Amino acid sequence: MKKRNPEMKKRGLLPAFLLLMLLLLSACGTPTESPAAVEENPLIVVGFSQVGAESDWRNANTLSMQTAFSAENGYRLIFDDAQQKQERQITAIRNFINQGVDYIVLAPTTERGWDTVLTEAKAAGIPVIIVDRMIETNDPDLFTCWIGSDFRREGDTAVAWMEQTFGDRPLSVVHLQGNIGSSAQIGRTDGLDAGLAAHRNWSLVFRGPGDFTQAKGQELVEGLLADGVSFDVIYSENDNMAYGAIDALKNAGLTPGKDVTIISFDASSTALHMILSGEISYDVECNPLHGPRVRAVIEQLNAGQIPPKYTYVEETAFDKNSLTESLISTRGY
Ligand code: AHR
Fold this sequence. Notes:
Blueprint (H helix, E strand, L loop, with lengths): L5 H23 L6 H6 L3 E7 L5 H13 L6 E7 L4 H14 L3 E4 L8 H9 L4 E5 L12 E4 L2 H16 L4 E7 L5 H16 L3 E8 L4 H13 L6 E4 L2 H13 L9 E6 L2 H8 L5 E4 L5 H12 L7 E3 L4 E2 L6 H5 L4
Parallel strand pairs: 1-2, 1-3, 3-4, 4-5, 5-11, 6-7, 6-8, 8-9, 9-10
Antiparallel strand pairs: 10-12
Helix pairs in contact: 3-11, 4-5, 6-7, 8-9
Alpha-L-arabinofuranose (AHR) binds next to helix 3 and strand 9.
């Protein structure tokens, strides 16, 4: 018998090894996801820079985005929580650019300070979609489109309710602001300022930033009560600060909704229940369910269509007359 050359024996091993690897790889894939199918329909990679987790609104918004950009829907979402810090968002965007994502979605902390990093994204050819708050820039080509709320209209809606409820009666107002420089703060503050200018009997007894968090809202109102400041109305720029304010009032033996009128923004489920129980008097909706809206925009872009540059979400407002348990249960946040 002819003896086999050992070198040939080694060479013969390589194709067998490759065949084995191929068999193993195909055994790992699901029947519906053969390597060829994955190649035909690769997941769209979306880098999402989120503001943080400061509020119920924000958590509902994160969930909405994560649900919309699931693998089942054809996406790989790279999520970054910036903990309310713009520097962290800028770093996250640079990371997305380095990773070569297909789209960048930015929920900006504040309006200013984005030009440099968005110029980098533009140079890399990555479309940027701004969601929720707005950015301030002289170059509208730095982002593809924006979807969010009309925060000034929200402020005006709250003030219209104050006018209807209190007219020109003397009114002492405490104003809990969100993150200074964010669109949500700017619009809601501008609305109140217009109301204060139009009503000489309304006076602002305190204004300060509570960063949209419950802890800060509570801390600010506790401080006011400790200083003996008295007031009729709390205009809280989001629900979580209102929850903190309510805790502070209750701890001081006051009855929210009776001793002090609370006006808030977001209309999240807990707050709407507080309207039914009488603790919050009026809540202007800010809708966080942007996931499907942003996905629709990406689908349009993928299909070569041009989505609208600006999309304002339709929103409403609630008092106890316009609310029922069953309505709350259908709202999804
Ligand atoms: O930008 C939307 C605002 O941000 C919401 O009102 C607030 O709750 C959130 O933190």
